[in-house]
Amino acid sequence: MKKYLSLIILITLVTLCAFSTAAAELPFSLSGDFKTKYIYDLENENNLDQTELNLEIEKDFSYTGGFYLNLGLESYSEYLMNNKNRETELSIKEGYFDYYTENIDWRAGKQIFNWGSSYNIKPSNYFNPIDIGAINPLENREGINALQAKYYLNNVQHFTAVVGLREDINDFQQALKFTKRRWHGFDFSLSLFRGNELEKYNQNEYPKVTKAGFDITGDIGQKNIGIFSEVVYNDFKSPIFNDGLETVVGFDYKFENNLYLLGQYYYQKRLFENIDDSQIISLHAEKPFWQFHSWEANLLYDLNSELIVLRPKIIYSLTEAMEIEAGAVLKANDDQRSQLARANEELIYLGINSYF
C-alpha cells in the first residue's frame, strides 16, 4: 500500500509540473485534474484501482464564439471470471464549438446539459445517462452529440432548443425549454421533450416517450432557505408503460457555522402494473473543518424496499492543488429490485486528487 501511494504522489507531481509549464506557453487555457484511487469492493472482496486524467482546453474568441474540450484518460482494474484485468480508455467527455449571433448562442458538439433544479436525481435531465462506471454515478453524466440554440428575448428570458443523438439510439432526441429568471426571487423553466428514456426497459429497449416538465428554484424567508422542485409528466408511446408524473421537491440551507444541508423527496408513478411507485428520500450534508479540509455525507433511502445507501467522504488538503480523499459506499437492507441498488456498489476507497 505504501509503495502504491508513493508512486501515485510521484506521478501526480510530475504531471502537475509538466502541464503547468506547458500551459504558460499555449494560445488557449489549459486546466484539469489527476485523480487516482485504491478501492476495496466490499460485495466481492476484491482489490481495485482507478486512475483518471482530465484535460480541459478552452478558447474564447471574444464576442464571436469559442470552443471547449474535455479529454479523459482512465485506467482501471476489474475482475472477469475471477481474473483481474486492466482496461484503459481515452474519451471525449465534452467537446463543442460556440458561435454567437445578435440574439442566438449556438453550440455544436458533445455536451452535458445541466437541466433541472434538483440534486442528483433530476427528472428534467432528458439527455445525459448516468455514468454507471463512476464511484458516484448519480453525480456523473455521459455526454451526447447535440446542436443547441439559445435565443434571448431579454436579460431574464430565453428559449433553448436542442436536437441530439445518443450513441446507442438512432432516433433524434429533441427538446424545447423556456426559462425566466428573477421572477419574484425565483427562476423557473418550462420544457417539452420527445425521444427515448435514459434507462433500458422491456427487453433492453429504450422506450419512446414525450415529456412535459416544469422546474423552479429560489429562496424564501429572511434566512434565505432555498427551495426547489421539478415536475415532469411522462407520456409513453408503448401501452405496456404507465403514463404519469415524476416529481422532486426539496430544500437547502447553509448555517452560520458553514454547515450546508440539503434534502429532497423524489416520486415516480410506477412504470408497470406489477411494481410499486418509486419513492426516494435524499439527504446531503457538508462542512469545512480546520479551514482547508471538509467532510461530506450523502444518504439515499428507498421508501418501498427500505434500502439505505450511505456515502461518507473526507477531503484533507495537502496543498492548494492537492488533496487526499477517503470515502465509502455502504448499504443496508439491500434489495436488487431498487434502482438505487443497481447504481451503487458497496466499497471503501482512498485516493489522491490534484488540480492544475
From TrEMBL:
Report keywords, A-Z.
Signal
Taxonomically, the superkingdom here is: Bacteria
> What is the residue range of the signal peptide feature?
1-24
The protein depicted here goes by the name Uncharacterized protein
Species this protein is from: Halanaerobium kushneri
